[in-house]
Amino acid sequence: MKEFLYYRCVDGYVGIKTNIKNFNWPYGICRKPVDKTEYEKCKIKVALNAVDDKNVFDCVDTENYKTSFRHFKASENKKSIIFDQTIAKFIRLRYLVTVSGNTVNAVFGKSYIKTVKIKTMYIHPVRFILFDLVTLMLLKNGLLTVYCSAVKLSGGKTAVMLSPPNAGKSLTALNLLNKYNAKIIAEDMAVTDGEFIYGVPNTESFRNYNNEISKDISSEDMVPSGKIDYLFFMQKGSDEQLKPIDKYFEKLKMISRYAVGYYYSPFLRVLDWFNDDFSVTSAEKTEDDIIEKIQASVPGYLIERKNPMEFADIIISTVQ
Fold it and tell me: Which regions in the chain score pLDDT beneath 50?
């Protein structure tokens, strides 16, 4: 049995302990362990345990899981869900997830972890089951997960950059760091309460760029959070434009939903079916409230350029 190591995914908000080496989920890659005390400080804590298939349900009495929803079954208190299905006649897919307040205990069979790599109908990879669950739990705590990059500029203001995939979010954050001495808060994913943005520091999209641009980012190059001062929606295109946009609710919601899909999660639909306090509809309402809060107080700009290397220069000229 591999030992459990502790990781901080969002400073003060999301932590995970697991015996899976380099576990990779949208809240970052688990490469840099922290002390248990740092994990315990996190509001939402996830314990992820990989075990042999036969041992997945060792800590529960499966006879108490009588209420069924397809291949899912719920415990009597409806806070614990088991999944058990055999595919290809001999591959046993099993897991157990229990939610207690802001704590998640997840036990997955090794066959499930090894076999399930992509989303297919109601069977999703471990990384997405837990990501969707934590996304909903954050919303229950008034926090929205956003697909973005963010920096604290040298003057102290915080800029959040949003764009379609491969349009320059991470590249712009790196350019603002290298050319303008900004500090990186996030480069692929972040969490916000509508006023402050909190970084997900262990994503590594910046590694897609060459070494000259993506120098090794040290802790001195990063800060954990910042008060949102500007939103920049960036897109690659032939129209060389920069314009303010006052009504960006739908644009912000759409770009976030590209990467954040908790409302499509089969596991959350099952949890919602059995529990009134895990309402996906209520989570969506909280999402809308947070976006409206941002729109009401933060100026937004649309930037379009053929060359995404220009985005950083335009952002600096706009805020000066």
Answer: none
